[in-house]
């Protein structure tokens, strides 16, 4: 035990806490947004597929800004990247005010896109920054520790969505809204949009406060040495590394499965509760409570998995959890009652380890190329943009071969877990033997 490497040096504690707070901040943004797919679908009388365009805009911002963020950080510093990210985050959140005044769907999509351009800066910066704050041998554990605070932000985001948005929207269900006159519908829509913007404005102001704290705090310059090679040369170099390439693919499918399971738990639960006699709004709020339970399980599991990484190789634990997640998804598909919802909640325990562990495995050994390596992994968050609309298009079919389409749609998350399990297997069976991890 005397030779055990420290996860963090005491002199880096305050900077570590400040950067870790960013994980909380983007967790909040992610999970106050997932329930908005259902909310905006109702507010604007849209299909689930059209509502899922929020996810396209949200995770499209991650994709679009990842490499520009890496170039920016390379030219300036990790601190500059954090400040740019916080600035865009706050600006996008505060754009909800004019979007609500305009009363159209498109301005909200633009606001989400700008907000997540900021999140892309933060994730491209914060993940490798945390990895650099100490011994490389404890980097994955250190990142898992920081990432443990991400689901806490997610929990708060879900709570705010349920308490300050969903519960305060007009109780008229989708069918009731369709029967309103144009003037009546516009009045209901305007009132609902004013409900939606409150939490986003509050978080925008909080993010501005964090911006000022970090602006005036001296931050360490760990890992800020940059290669003199061109950005294109660095990208070509890192994509020649098999472990990194497969890590980007695994991350794409992991983020896809995470967003699908957390976004469509509301649709899944709502169908079950309506069949049991609940009204639509009550069923939605009840489903969101299950979503919060899922996130609480995810949060607790993250700390447990961080501890287990001291004793179990990262790739092996990743594979085991992906297999377990796939088995639970089989229950989600097969059951058509509350047992399926229980299985969907349990999936979150399996997902908790995955993002930071895939991230740490893929970036292991990249050294000064980690900034661009991080950008590729953040671009893989595009999986959260591409896959949910595909699942939504299945859900919109209603039933398939006599089975609720929402159940059938979880074939996509099952496939994603298979991809992650294969990457975990190859990590400890292949890459370990090649001394790449």
Note the run of SSEs as H and E. HHHHHHHHHHHHHHHHHHHHEEHH
Main sheet: strand order: 1-2
| Beginning-to-end CA distance, first to last residue | 22 Å
Contiguous low-pLDDT stretches (5 residues minimum) are none
CATH topology category name: Growth Hormone, Chain: A
Query: Nearest-angstrom radius of gyration?
Result: 21 Å
CATH class: Mainly Alpha
Q: Architecture, according to CATH?
A: Up-down Bundle
Average of pLDDT:
83
Structural class by secondary-structure content: mainly alpha
* Name given to the CATH homologous superfamily: MFS general substrate transporter like domains
Largest pleated sheet: 2 strands, antiparallel
Number of helices: 22
- Oligomeric nature of the chains: single chain
Number of strands: 2
| Total domains | 1
Provide a short characterization of the protein structure.
This protein is mainly alpha-helical and 437 residues long. It has 22 helices and 2 strands.
Write a structural description.
β1 (399-400) and β2 form a beta hairpin. It is globular, with a radius of gyration of 21 Å. It contains 22 helices and 2 strands. The relative contact order is 0.15. It has a single domain, classed as Growth Hormone, Chain: A, CATH 1.20.1250. It has helices at residues 13-33, 36-43, 48-51, 53-75, 78-94, 96-102, 105-132, 139-147, 150-165, 174-178, 182-215, 231-238, 242-263, 265-275, 280-308, 314-334, 338-351, 354-363, 370-379, 383-395, 405-408, 411-431, and strands spanning 399-400, 403-404. It is an all-alpha fold and 437 residues long. Strands 1-2 form a two-stranded antiparallel ribbon. α16 (314-334) packs antiparallel against α22. The two termini are 22 Å apart. The model has no long low-confidence stretch (mean pLDDT 83).
């Amino acid at each position: 035990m005397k030779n055990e490497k420290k996860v963090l040096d005491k002199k880096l504690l305050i900077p570590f806490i400040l950067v870790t707070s960013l994980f909380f901040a983007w967790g909040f943004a992610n999970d106050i947004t997932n329930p908005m797919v259902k909310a905006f679908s109702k507010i604007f009388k849209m299909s689930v597929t059209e509502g899922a365009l929020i996810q396209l805009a949200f995770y499209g911002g991650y994709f679009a800004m990842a490499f520009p963020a890496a170039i920016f950080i390379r030219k300036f510093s990790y601190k500059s990247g954090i400040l740019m990210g916080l600035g865009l985050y706050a600006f996008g959140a505060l754009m909800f005010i004019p979007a609500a005044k305009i009363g159209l769907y498109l301005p909200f999509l633009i606001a989400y896109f700008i907000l997540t351009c900021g999140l892309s800066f933060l994730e491209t910066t914060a993940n490798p920054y945390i990895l650099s704050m100490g011994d490389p041998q404890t980097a994955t554990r250190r990142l898992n520790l920081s990432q443990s605070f991400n689901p806490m932000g997610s929990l708060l985001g879900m709570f705010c969505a349920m308490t300050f948005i969903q519960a305060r929207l007009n109780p008229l269900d989708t069918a009731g809204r369709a029967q309103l006159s144009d003037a009546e519908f516009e009045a209901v829509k305007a009132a609902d949009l004013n409900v939606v913007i409150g939490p986003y404005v509050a978080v925008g102001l909080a993010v501005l406060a964090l911006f000022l704290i970090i602006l005036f705090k001296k931050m360490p310059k760990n890992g800020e040495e940059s290669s003199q090679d061109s950005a294109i040369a660095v990208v070509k170099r890192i994509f020649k590394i098999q472990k990194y390439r497969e890590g980007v693919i695994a991350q794409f499918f992991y983020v896809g499965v995470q967003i699908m399971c957390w976004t469509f738990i509301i649709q899944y639960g709502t169908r079950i509760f309506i069949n049991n006699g609940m009204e639509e709004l009550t069923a939605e709020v009840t489903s969101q409570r299950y979503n919060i339970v899922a996130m609480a399980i995810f949060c607790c599991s993250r700390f447990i998995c961080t501890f287990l990484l001291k004793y179990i190789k990262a790739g092996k634990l990743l594979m085991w959890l992906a297999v377990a997640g796939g088995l639970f998804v089989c229950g989600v598909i097969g059951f058509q009652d509350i047992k399926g919802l229980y299985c969907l909640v349990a999936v979150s325990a399996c997902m908790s380890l995955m993002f930071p562990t895939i991230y740490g495995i893929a970036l292991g050994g990249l050294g000064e190329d980690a900034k661009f390596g991080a950008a590729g992994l953040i671009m893989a968050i595009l999986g959260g943009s591409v896959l949910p609309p595909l699942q939504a298009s299945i859900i919109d079919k209603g039933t398939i071969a006599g089975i609720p389409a929402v159940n059938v749609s979880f074939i996509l998350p099952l496939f994603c877990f298979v991809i992650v399990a294969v990457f975990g297997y190859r990590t400890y069976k292949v890459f370990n033997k090649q001394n790449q991890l």
